[in-house]
Amino acid sequence: KPFKRILLTGAAGGLGRLLRDRIKPWADIVRLSDLADVGPAGEGEEVVQCDLADKAAVLALMEGVDAVLHFGGISTEAPFDAIMQANILGMANLYEAIHKCGVKRVVFASSNHTMGFYKTTDLVDADMPPRPDGMYGVSKVFGESLSRYYYDRFGIETVCLRIGSCFPEPANPRMMITYLSADDLVEALRCSLFAARVGHTIAFGVSDNKAKWWDDRKSRHLGFVAKDSSTQFEHKFPDSGNYAPADDITITFQGGGFLLTGPQYN
Ligand code: NAI
Ligand code: 15L
């Protein structure tokens, strides 16, 4: 198999559970980690429970790893303290361990919320300045910058995949535009891990939906071509073609409902 050991963080989460079996062909051993219980290790698996905010534990977690799929952390707008621990301190701990252990390739589950303050009439690409829509989005921008620094300084290659909405089905009209199917996610990860050179790449994780907010031309070297589309769910949201700015910030800006929820200081 191409890798000896892939580390998957966030393995107990929605995407982690989806990926668990599907990444097995890529490595002899998949090391599954989360703060929460991921259940017992199966064949070809190792389980390490770990808080990303714990520096020593993260260093131990990385031992023997040659590629990382980083899906752990707070995945939505939340009190800043939690975001700071998991997504900011956690990210710093992770990259220091990645550097110390000689990991060569990382995929970071970034988010469309790095760009949530662009308008729904904008077409956003990877070179445009980040415009996060809350502290969660800011923490993902931090992750993108930190991984850029570790590439420039040490040559550690990272693909920051700005995931749209990866759920079994779109839950609202916005998700008709941001939908990413499970198969397309797996393919984006496969391309990110196996493309010859990725340097530091920012890519958009989105299926081939009819309406588009993101231009992926800056990440074509990954070779990722989405096969699915939200059109299969058109019956659920027949009016989504009319998704247009109105007197409602959750419609004016790409971040949708996230615009209303932060920042949360407690
Ligand atoms: P999730 O919330 O279901 O899973 C995240 C996992 O991280 C959880 O199992 C949680 O226990 C773990 N975690 C949280 N704090 C931690 C800590 N301090 N130490 C160790 N583990 C910790 O989220 P989901 O949907 O599976 O997303 C996975 C990743 O993808 C997240 O980083 C999220 O920001 C990103 N993403 C997901 C999108 C989606 O559509 N599902 C869209 C954009 C980004
Ligand atoms: C995200 O970044 C979140 O992790 C996910 O739960 C969804 O809210 C998604 O963005 C989205 O924008 O739909």
TrEMBL record:
Per the record's keyword annotation, is Oxidoreductase included, yes or no?
yes
Query: NAD as a keyword?
Result: yes
**MF-aspect GO terms:** oxidoreductase activity
**Annotated ranges, domain NAD-dependent epimerase/dehydratase:** 6-178
Q: What stretches pass through the bilayer?
A: none
Listed Pfam families? Epimerase
- Which superkingdom, per the lineage? Bacteria
Question: Which InterPro entries does this chain map to?
Answer: Epimerase_deHydtase, NAD(P)-bd_dom_sf
| Keyword set, alphabetical order | NAD, Oxidoreductase
User: Into which family does the record put it?
Assistant: Belongs to the NAD(P)-dependent epimerase/dehydratase family.
Protein name, please?
A: NAD-dependent dehydratase
- Annotated source species: Massilia violaceinigra
- Organism taxonomic ancestry: Bacteria, Pseudomonadati, Pseudomonadota, Betaproteobacteria, Burkholderiales
